[in-house]
Amino acid sequence: MVETLSREIRLANRPVGLPRESDFELVEARIPELREKEVLVRNIYMSVDPYMRGRMIDRPSYVPPFQIGEPLAGACVGQAVASRNAGFPVGDYVTSARGWREYYVSDGTDLIKMDPRLAPIQTYLGTLGMPGMTAYVGLLHLGLPKAGETVFVSAASGAVGAMVCQIAKIKGCRVIGSAGSREKVSWLMNEAGIDGAFNYKETGDLVAEVGKHCPKGIDVYYENVGGKHLEAALE
Q1: Rg of the chain over CA atoms, in angstroms?
Q2: Is 0.70 topped by the overall pTM?
Q3: Whether 223 contacts 231, CB under 8 Å
Q4: What is the largest CA-CA distance in the chain?
Q5: What is the pLDDT of residue 134?
Q6: Which string of b and e fits 178-196 if b means at least 16 CB within 10 Å?
Q7: pLDDT computed for residue 40 by the predictor
Q8: What is the rounded distance in angstroms from the CA atom of residue 186 to the CA atom of residue 206?
Q9: SS3 label, residue 227
């Protein structure tokens, strides 16, 4: 049986400060009948990423802002449950930016097929998704790290930062990371296995702290936060 209704999260108000529950609304929307070359996708996993907060503000940016009364968007993994598009038969797993809803109809142009045999499907939102690709391209195509070099990563325990750390270690680099809590520092050292880490919230002199961990300087800095971190790395 093909579903006729889909629950979706819409932006009700533009948040001021931390978003509140009242800034969003859960709505049941009718699913339109499929036309030729369309496919109905049921979302299985959805990613909630920091950039989404910026899209809740009505201002020009690299992506358009979310609109009041419209469904929010975000990376998601789903499966085709009905199709009139030969390129996406029923059963296909796909990724798109059509998250924050149970079902959606697509003409296929915004869908990317994925192979669930290669890795668990949720990894296409992390390691094999936007965070992983950001880390991979940024570090390997721009940073060009070499074995033995020192790589400093800000926000090293985040989705992108953690991937950068792992790729840098694979490349034989000495990896130093900053994070915002003792728990994150512990994870970086004991689980991620990097060479050094510190809690930037507990240091009064960020330049000195970076210098202590990178006495011979930094060969590659992977910038995730800007501000004082960038200034300290450049020092």
Answers
A1: 21
A2: yes
A3: no
A4: 64
A5: 96
A6: bbeeeebbebbeeebebbb
A7: 97
A8: 19
A9: helix
**Per-residue tokens: 123:** 């990894």
What does the block give as tokens for 122? Answer: 């949720």
Measure the CA angle with vertex 76, ends 167 and 78; round to 5°: 120
Query: What is the token pair recorded at 213?
Result: 């961990």
Counted residue by residue, the chain has a size of 235
Record the tokens describing residue 107, joined without a space: 């003409």
End-to-end CA distance of the chain: 62
Listed as ranges, residues in the chain with pLDDT below 70 are 1-3
Structural domains of the chain, ranges and CATH numbers in brackets? 5-125 (3.90.180.10), 130-234 (3.40.50.720)
Per residue, what are the HEC states of 186-205?
HHHHHCCCCCEEEEHHHCCC
Please enumerate in sequence order all residues whose Cβ is within 8 A of that of 97, keeping only pairs 6 or more positions apart, or say none: 73, 74, 75, 76, 110
Give the other-Cβ count within 10 Å of 59's Cβ: 7
